[in-house]
């Protein structure tokens, strides 16, 4: 089926064009073109914007703003984002990382969207022409979002404060069994003073492990210290079942991998 | 719907075609231009058989719309040999028996070429990582990894 691609120099004009029925925004193509290849007839037109701000990374004063068109490869090689490189490299193989954008990753259904798990742990904000919203709010209603995502913003974690783990069966790269990202802060005595943990594949979209976060507060990152958090790691999860793993399996192994991440 | 003009450089030669909107680069190369070296495997971005090099970066031609490649420089495996002499990667794949059915081979070679272009002396881990988006159902990967390492050594010897 023929697809009309329209390119606009501004996000404003692209947003206006996206109001037409059947149109989708084209980022790197790894979701939308794939859908068209699979015969998704709901896509009849593609819209994209070449506005330069969509391809800019700004790191200033401990704050990061990544344009939505930036690819995983660009993030992985950016010298100021080395703490996130591991999470960006977790997405696909080299060719996919040269195409997949941070904006598109926000819409990737489980078992994909590993970088969004990192963004959720980082307490990101999502920018559109309508303003900024917390990532949790955005993810909860992402199907209803009709404005082009222009950027994601977050505070750079302190050295060693950001942890990320992707578990897959195929090495070195494969589809996720699950992924976990955590931003931890510790008091001088080693106890956890702040914890934000995000999970991938444990629901249809990235989710917070709020019970585990709460159980970590005031605890040391030792086997005994993290035990209460691991005991509640699966609270509120609703994992996907796919050819990679069943929901039961994902729930069974989540505490094991969360434990490894916390003790690393 | 009106046809859309596209123009790019393919393996050093200027190409211009009229295509339908939404035509993937893979289909444009194979069905319009006649370069059948990129293979259509999964059409989902999973197998890597359609890999090509666009402006120096490895991309999946099955997920790239041809009209987004206007003005680009595209390299495919069919453009590697020069005057009938195989590229060191092609020679190494033959010598190491790194190709059985051959379907994945053009994508593997494209991924390997990008690696060697940027990392002339790769480690085994570098090779495994570079090929991690390409699926082979025949060889078990080891002959392919060895072929890429052999081609790297061949390149460095030729450069010495």
Structure in words:
The complex is a heterodimer of chains A (264) and B (160). Chain A has 264 residues and is an alpha+beta fold. Chain A has helices at 11-17, 32-37, 72-77, 85-89, 94-97, 102-105, 114-121, 135-140, 210-216, 223-231, 247-263, and strands spanning 4-8, 23-25, 45-49, 57-60, 63-67, 125-128, 131-134, 149-155, 162-168, 176-186, 192-200, 207-208. In chain A, the strands form three sheets. A five-stranded antiparallel beta sheet of chain A has the order 4-5-8-6-7. Chain A has a four-stranded antiparallel beta sheet with strand order 9-10-11-12, with helices on both faces. In chain A, helix 2 links the parallel strand 2 and strand 3 (45-49). The radius of gyration of chain A is 19 Å and the shape is globular. The N and C termini of chain A lie far apart (50 Å). In chain A, 48% of the residues are buried. The mean pLDDT of chain A is 96. The mean pLDDT of chain B is 95. The radius of gyration of chain B is 16 Å and the shape is globular. Chain B has helices at 25-33, 88-95, 105-118, 124-130, 142-159; strands at residues 4-10, 13-19, 51-54, 57-60, 73-75. Chain B has a five-stranded mixed beta sheet with strand order 2-1-5-3-4, sandwiched between helices. With 160 residues, chain B is α+β, with helices and mostly antiparallel strands. The A-B interface holds A 1-5, 26, 28-30, 33-34, 36-38, 46, 48, 73, 92-96, 98-99, 172-173 and B 1, 20-22, 24, 43-45, 48, 51, 57-60, 62-65, 67-68, 111, 114, 128-134. Chain A: This is Oxidoreductase.
């Amino acid at each position: 089926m023929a697809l009309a691609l329209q390119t606009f120099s501004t996000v404003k004009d692209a947003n206006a064009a996206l109001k037409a029925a059947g149109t989708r925004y084209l980022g790197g193509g790894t979701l939308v073109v794939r859908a068209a290849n699979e015969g998704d007839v709901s896509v009849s037109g593609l819209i994209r914007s070449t506005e330069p701000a969509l391809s800019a990374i700004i790191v200033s004063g401990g704050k990061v703003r990544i344009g939505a068109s930036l690819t995983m490869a660009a993030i992985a090689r950016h010298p100021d984002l080395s703490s996130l490189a591991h999470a960006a490299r977790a997405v696909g193989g080299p060719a996919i990382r040269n195409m997949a954008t941070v904006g598109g990753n926000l819409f990737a259904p489980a078992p994909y969207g590993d970088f969004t798990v990192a963004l959720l742990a980082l307490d990101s904000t999502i920018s559109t022409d309508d303003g900024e919203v917390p990532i949790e709010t955005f993810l909860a209603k992402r199907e209803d979002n009709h404005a082009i995502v222009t950027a994601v913003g977050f505070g750079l974690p302190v050295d060693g404060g950001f942890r990320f783990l992707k578990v897959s069966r195929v090495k070195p790269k494969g589809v996720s069994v699950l992924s976990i990202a955590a931003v931890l802060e510790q008091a001088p005595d080693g106890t956890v003073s702040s914890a934000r943990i995000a999970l991938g594949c444990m629901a249809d979209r990235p989710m917070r492990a709020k019970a585990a976060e709460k159980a970590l507060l005031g605890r040391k990152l030792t086997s005994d210290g993290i035990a209460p958090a691991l005991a509640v790691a699966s609270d509120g999860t609703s994992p996907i079942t796919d050819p990679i793993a069943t929901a039961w399996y994902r729930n069974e192994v989540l505490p094991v991998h969360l434990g490894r991440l916390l003790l690393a | 719907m009106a046809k859309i003009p596209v123009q790019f450089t393919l393996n050093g030669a200027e190409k211009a075609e009229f295509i339908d909107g939404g035509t993937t680069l893979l289909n444009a190369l194979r069905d319009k231009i006649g370069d059948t070296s990129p293979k259509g495997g999964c059409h989902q971005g999973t197998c890597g058989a359609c890999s090509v090099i666009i402006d120096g970066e490895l991309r999946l031609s099955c997920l790239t719309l041809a009209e987004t490649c206007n003005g680009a420089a595209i390299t495919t495996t069919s453009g590697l040999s020069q005057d009938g002499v195989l590229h060191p990667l092609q020679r190494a794949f033959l010598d190491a028996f790194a190709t059985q059915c051959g379907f994945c081979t053009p994508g593997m070679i494209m991924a390997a070429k990008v690696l060697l272009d940027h990392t002339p002396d790769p480690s085994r881990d570098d090779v495994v990582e570079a090929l991690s988006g390409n699926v082979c159902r025949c060889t078990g990967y080891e002959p392919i990894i060895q072929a890429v390492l052999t081609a790297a050594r061949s390149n460095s010897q030729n450069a010495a």
